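Lecture 7 notes: from sequence to structure.

We start with a single chain of 500 residues. Read the sequence below before looking at the structure.
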Amino acid sequence: MSGEAVTRGEVARGAALVALSRASSLIEAVAQPLFIWLYGLPAYGLYVVLWGAINLAENVVDLSLTGALQRIVPQEEEEAAHAAVKAALLVTILPASAIALAVSVGAPWIAPFVSAAPADRPWLVEAIRLFAWALPLWTFVEVATSAARARRAFGPEIRLRLFWEQIARILFAGGFFLLGAGHLGLVIAHLASLTLTAALCVPLLARFYSPRLLLRARLRPADFRLLLVTGIALLPANVARRLLVDAPAVVINLLIPGARGAVAAGLFEIARKIATLPLSVRQAFQYVMAPLAAHQARARREDIAPLYHFASRVSSALVVPLAGLLAFAGRDILSIYRPEAMAALPLLVILVGARAAEAIVGPATPIVEMTGHRLLPLVNSLVGAAVWILLSLLLVPPLGAEGMAIAVGLATLAIAYAATVELRISDNLSPFDHKLFQGLAAALAGLALMWAVTQLLGGVLRFATLVLLWAAASWAALRVGLTRSDRVALGGFGRAVRLL
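Now the structure, written as tokens:
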């Protein structure tokens, strides 16, 4: 591993590539209306409940070895790095396959616990039986792409997550609908796209790791213990944090009986998917900062500070205007869904507001995780999980999906701001400086103008004006919220939009 210092330019390039791969969220947001028009909101709600359960199971089964690889691979010699990847694959995929088999066999006993409309009951057992096999497929995809990221290679996921996974899923969903697969078509389409993605992860691994060395690499007991201990130390924090992404639809379905539970889960997922767009910008810096912070921690801790400031400034300058656009144009966006989807508007406003507030503090969480503070991520995530569980139990029965949106939003902020306070205390690192506040002021001014437009205009003219204001607010926030060296680090993008 090279001892060269990580630069802001590398952070920017990596974040841009990861953001492009995370643009799968944009495709998912576009695919949602199609899936709902083809299969109906209750069937879509059941589908997201099943997929949420798979994601929850995967985050337990992988023992957070995906995160452990981010720490270990950059600091090891080639044979040890290959052995770590081999061990991660074996330790995760074999249990995932066993669980899939058990769920597939036990599907008739599991189905009664899932809320569904009477018309959807006949296909539910078969859906559970089939969808269980998404677990080993998704586990392999997660470990393989994490191994590539551990090589500081952030671009290869673009084709996998953006095209082969998301575009293929849309094509499969449309194809199975035309073939008359019924509501099961959405489940089969998801399995088909995951199978294709998993197959393409094999050459991805071969690109960054020697297949021969992977097969013959022997992990020493001490190295194996390090891999497991590192992963298991991250596991409670990762699972607690993923609860806020994967569990809400499942919990809504469990707390609200019958067809109402399936519909409420679908409405929440509509709002969550759209609110994922601003999250994708923040996630881009999280994905990049994790392995880079681990690399930089080998050098001087103070070298992380300029990267942290840079990531926080860019994140807030881009996310806050985007969140405003989604909130103020939410009615226009939801109009492309079936009419019943308009009930997701209050949920959307709550979730994007939380994402905007979260973005201001930048990638504090991965920096805490990757700079040796092993207990703090667990504390933060447990606090967030406790907030979510308490608010969910209090708010979901009376308020439905809107109560879940409030619970998720506040729990997300609890985790992010706890990490920010801890970095300030432990390492004297803070995202806040005058440049960040200048950029935030420009972004908030843009949001005020967007609100005024919603009061004065309507229809297509309102939406077009909001888009123009979003672009102007984003540019202004970047221009006044970044130092010149920050803007230079943006490379060709900075020159193309005349930030220099």
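The CA atoms of residues 8 and 489 lie 6 Å apart. Keep this in mind for problem set 3.
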